[in-house]
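Entry:
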Amino acid sequence: MFLGFLLSFVFSSSATSFPLTSTVGYLGGGETILTCEFADYSGPCKLDTGVNFTTISFIEKTSSLKSIGKLNHVSASGSVMECDLIDVSELFFSGNFVAQNLRWVRCPLGAEAKPLIGLDVFSQKKMFLSFSEKSLTLQKPENMKADKTFTTETSGHIIMDVQFKGGVPSKAMYDTGASVTSVSQKFYEKNKTLFTLIGGAETKDTHGKMIGSQLAILNWLQAGSKKFVAEYVMIMDFEPVQEFLGPDVDFILGFNMISQADWFFDFQNHQWNVL
């Protein structure tokens, strides 16, 4: 769901369309799965736009990849894990070449065994994520104009403007790897009328650490032209997240809301749109 920053590398990709599988579970949360192949691995990979550099676990099929260094991997809760830096020569989705000359992160097996495909794979490219068609395409669809701007802070995440009921503004990180949308405790305390509190809850970060939170229903939110009504959110301490994303980011748009729309991102020009 979340990873501290690394240096950028150069990538190559095509305009092929790749099939997606979405799993939906508790509170409408879930994950988006691609079939990917790299090195000795072939199998399901999770699309995680909350990860700036693709992260894999140390399992038998990834053990042959040689470590070229170490770094501290930071989760959304602020927990730290020492991981390897590795080089991957080529990445394929469903047998089709996508990218090459990749530098990834490999961590001890935590909460997530599947590889987490991050934003590095789509660097300087276009991405159309269609939940209605269950596909990911590396080009702009003809019926969609990218007329909204997103920003990236030093760790490279997608930060977009959103609006709550009554015109209350906020900034959100777009995170397909977050099963359920979350909001900062401080923002909730200042804007309680925007939410209906349900009670206590727990969730896990990418290291498997349990995070205490509260569960609420968000009354209304607009991202671009898309309006979301009566959606579950987790109220959490955002201080560890804001150390990387900045103090203005009070919202993480997760799968339970993202999966209700089709999204286009032009990473070279920092533009986006939603249907």
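Residues 239-245 form the longest helix (7 residues).
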